[in-house]
Amino acid sequence: MARFASSLQKKYLEDYAVQHGFDNIQHFSDDGYSGTNFNRPAFNSLLTEIEAGRVGTVIVKDMSRFGRNYLQVGFYTEMMFPKKNVRFIAVNNGVDSANPADNDFTPFLNIMNEYYARDTSRKIRSTFQSKGKSGKHLTGTVIYGYLWNEARDQWLVDPEAAEVVKRIFAMTIDGYGPYQIASKLKSEKVLIPSAYLAQHGEGVNKNKTFKDVYGWGSSTICNILEKREYLGHTINFKTRKHFKDKKSHYVPEDEWTIFENTHEPIIDQQTFDLVQKIRGNVRRYPDGWGEAAPLTGLLYCADCGGKMYVHRTNNGKRISQYTCSQYSKVPVGKLCTTQHRINEDVVLSLV
Q1: Phi then psi dihedrals of residue 88, to 5 deg
Q2: Listed range (102-106, 175-179, 194-198, 226-230) with the worst mean pLDDT
Q3: DSSP strand pairing (234-236 vs 239-241)
Q4: Most buried among 37, 41, 56, 239, by the most CB within 10 A?
Q5: How many whole angstroms separate alpha carbon 272 and alpha carbon 226?
Q6: Does the pTM exceed 0.70?
Q7: Which domains does the chain have, with CATH numbers?
Q8: Residue 318 CB: number of other CB atoms within 10 A?
Q9: Radius of gyration over alpha carbons of the chain, in Å?
């Protein structure tokens, strides 16, 4: 339907151009883009042609088709186009820059078009807020570990994926880092979340062709470990969109709306809290492996009370050692007189 409407608009403009003696016609169409967004591929191509002096007239169906930000539309129609000797015509609005009288009314059209876009966005946002504040999920997608019920109004635990989620949390507690966990899942040919959901007809990537369906990465593991939804909670309003750029912007955590116990949990609160504590104390190794040692965040220096962090030797042997975090702070040795270096395997043998 969208393509059909677009083709009709093109024919409409072509007929107008031919009837008014314009030739060498070229279309610049941005199907699927909002008029509030001026970073559109075809629109940018048009500007390039204008800058090069290869455009004499720009014809649009109406002002809203050109754009719905009155300041930016005004810049192009009242400053850039006249400077480049480009004639501007908005057919349905009866606007033609060749007629000076039309230019007086154009700014009002631009303002009304932006108001319409802003008002529409406000009404849509109000509807989403009402739905979100009722505890219902705001998106039509589920997260890895869950599937929709038949009515698509409740998340149900997906046993197969849920086991992978539980395993990821368990491995983190056992001292494995995101890189190690991702490598393990990849070697076992476990489908990545997006590919798994697509296999079940879910997710935003369900029609996508994946380069590597087993290509687990550290960021995916970290994302799973941070999701409170696995506790059985619904979390709404984590992002918001602006009516002009249509992009999602992250919202501060204290502005989220959390509804507890809306679906069956996969991870219990104690496990989730322990994982957050472990990850909050993780120090990444310089070689990029990013493994979390089992005792990270649990060891403290007997002399100064500072936390002891694990480090790895740089001699190629990859020996993990715990050292006092206060020793190396400038000036070195003032807060603690020695590093208290001790091999990790020695500590583990005493636990």
Answers
A1: -120, 130
A2: 102-106
A3: unpaired
A4: 37
A5: 9
A6: no
A7: 2-132 (3.40.50.1390), 146-272 (no CATH), 293-351 (no CATH)
A8: 11
A9: 29
